[in-house]
Amino acid sequence: MARRTERYKVRGANSLWQVYRTVPFLKVCKNFLVIQLCRYIPFLPLKNWMYRQFLKMEVGEQTAIALMVMMDVMFPERIRIGKNSIIGYNTTILCHEYLIDEYRIGDVRIGDRVMIGANSTLLPGIEIGDGAVIGAGSLVNRDIPSGVFAAGNPIRIIRHGNGTEVKFLEENEL
C-alpha cells in the first residue's frame, strides 16, 4: 500500500528552497527550539508535556521518547503516538518530504504499546499498529500491522504476532 501523503507541485527552484511558502518561518523556529530541548531532557513526563503543549502532538500516557529523538520540525502536529509506547534513541519521525518538483506531507500514526528500536527513520504517511516492534536501524516506509516484528531497510515483516516466522528466499534460491 502506498503511503498516505498529500502531494504539492512546485515551479521554479526545488521545493526545499521554497520551504517558507509552505510553513511559516516563526513556526519552524519555535518547533526547532522545542524539539532540540526535548532531545536532551531526561524527564519523560516533562518532555511529553512539551510535545503536547508547544508542538500540538498527540502523545499517549506513559509513552517513553528516548534521548536524541528527532521529531518533524515542519509539521510535528501530524504525529500521533499511542499509550505506553517506546521510541528508541536517535529515531527520526518525518511528516514531510521536500523533493525537486514537489513536496509531500503525511501523518505518522504510532499505536499503543509499540516499540521502535534506536536509529530508526519513520517516513510520512505511515501507520504502525498496536503492539508492533520495529527493529533498530529500520526505515519504516510502509504501514506495519499490529502485533508484528518488523525490521530492515526498507522494512519488512520478520515475525507475525502469533510467533510464525516469515520465510524469505535467499538470493541463491531466486
From TrEMBL:
Record bears the keyword Repeat: yes
Gene3D superfamilies: Hexapeptide repeat proteins (2.160.10.10)
GO molecular function terms attached to this record: transferase activity
Keywords: Repeat, Transferase
Record Pfam families: Hexapep
The name this protein goes by in its record: Acetyltransferase YvoF
Source species of the chain: Collibacillus ludicampi
Gene: yvoF
